[in-house]
Design a protein that fits this description.
The protein has 353 residues and is α/β, with parallel strands linked by helices. It contains ten helices and 17 strands. The relative contact order is 0.17. The structure holds nicotinamide-adenine-dinucleotide.
């Protein structure tokens, strides 16, 4: 599959390197409104730099668009790409509003195109091993999950943190464990949310002060269709430490994935229910070291070939946008909010099924 990257910022180089290393993928084009960004990317990793989005979308060598723009531009860029007849993989969130996300999914369906979206870290070896243990009943029926997405002060390393911080902690990082929990335990049916702005005044890595207005600390309690209750915390204030994993509490034991991000995360199981007895479980196959950004793109290419939906589906991503909206609305209105959308759960990776 020949890919065009739209948005050549911080994450574009890791994506492009991962594309270059993947079988069956080729970077053929890139564009970014900021001068020089697309040129620098293609100079290192190949392809043609287009001056505008319209020019990239008119390029017949592009089969699919990889949307790596800032979240505020996600829906607009994805819509333009679908209208131009390209398959799309979008970074998260798929859109800022659920009605926009749903409309994108419908547009893809009408045009016979595939839409996939991050987070897709569920496709990693550790995450697939974790999921397989749940399916195999290693801890019995799982009734409660705790998930932590404490991402700390991203302005200490990200060159342009304001666009990321403006999405809020739940929308930018809480979505990672939300994507994994909903894939395994089904869509959210009721959401209770709390959010606040813990540290509005920030200083960027050049020492320049700036202010943020969106919540940097959020907690959600979610009822899933499968009966699970999950408590998800996301923060751009709290120092990450150990708090970036998922712990599942089952009738017959506990299961811990210390990070939902890296494919090489440890996976720990205790069948006594005592955390002192946690023992490592070997991954289902040797893991990728870090995040393999191209994995959902390889899956998208296979989905096009095989005429099936991608594992990191747009339908699932649109549900996550409704969950985010519901968490925010619950905080505003002071009570639980019903979540109506659903999605077809993804299949495990072939090597994990
Ligand atoms: N930085 C990370 O570590 C990271 C990790 C995972 C996911 N992501 C996600 O990837 C996306 C991009 O993140 P980033 O950190 O690279 O942000 P960034 O701000 O560094 O880069 C975004 C780029 O998109 C460009 N852009 C904005 N509007 C555009 C438009 N309409 N058309 C084309 N280009 C446009 C900007 O000029 C910029 O170069 C975000 O959704 C983010 O959540 C980032």
């Amino acid at each position: 599959m020949r890919l065009g990257i739209v948005g050549c910022g911080n994450i574009a180089t890791p994506y492009a390197r991962s594309i270059a290393a993947a079988d069956g993928l080729e970077l053929v084009a890139a564009t970014d409104p900021l001068p020089g960004r697309a040129d620098a990317l293609v100079a290192e990793l190949g392809g043609v730099a287009h001056l505008t989005l319209a020019a990239l979308l008119a390029d017949p060598s592009v089969d699919a668009v990889v949307n790596l723009t800032a979240a505020v531009a996600h829906a607009e860029v994805t819509r333009a790409a679908l209208e131009a007849g390209k398959h799309v993989h979008s970074e998260k969130p798929l859109a800022l509003r659920h009605d926009e996300a749903r409309a994108l999914m419908e547009l893809a369906g009408e045009r016979g195109l595939l839409l996939s979206a991050s987070p897709a870290t569920l496709l990693g070896e550790a995450q697939q091993t974790f999921w397989r243990l749940v399916r195999d009943g290693a801890v019995g029926t799982v009734r409660v999950a705790y998930a932590e997405a404490n991402w700390g002060r991203i302005e200490t390393w990200h060159p342009t943190p304001a666009t990321i911080l403006s999405v809020g902690a739940m929308g930018d990082v809480g979505v990672y464990p939300l994507a994994i929990l909903t894939a395994i335990f089904g869509p959210v049916r009721r959401a209770l949310g709390y959010q606040t702005l813990a540290l509005p005044d920030r200083v960027d890595r050049d020492g320049e002060p700036f202010a943020i207005e969106t919540p940097d600390f959020a907690v959600a309690v979610l009822e899933h269709a499968g009966g699970l209750v999950s408590r998800v915390t996301a923060s751009f204030y709290t120092t990450p430490g150990y708090q970036r994993g998922i712990e599942l509490q089952g009738d017959d034991g506990i299961l811990w994935l210390p990070t939902w991000l890296d494919a090489g995360s440890r996976v720990l199981l205790s069948t006594t229910g005592n955390a002192d007895d946690y023992a490592e479980v070997a991954p289902l196959r040797p893991p990728y070291d870090g995040v393999d950004w191209s994995r959902p793109l390889v899956d998208l290419a296979a989905a096009v070939r095989e005429g099936r939906r991608p594992r990191a589906s747009g339908e699932h991503a649109a549900h996550l946008v409704e969950v985010l909206e519901s968490i925010e609305r619950s905080h505003r209105e002071g009570g639980p909010v019903e979540v109506r959308s659903s999605f077809t759960p993804p299949e495990p990776m072939p090597w994990a099924s």
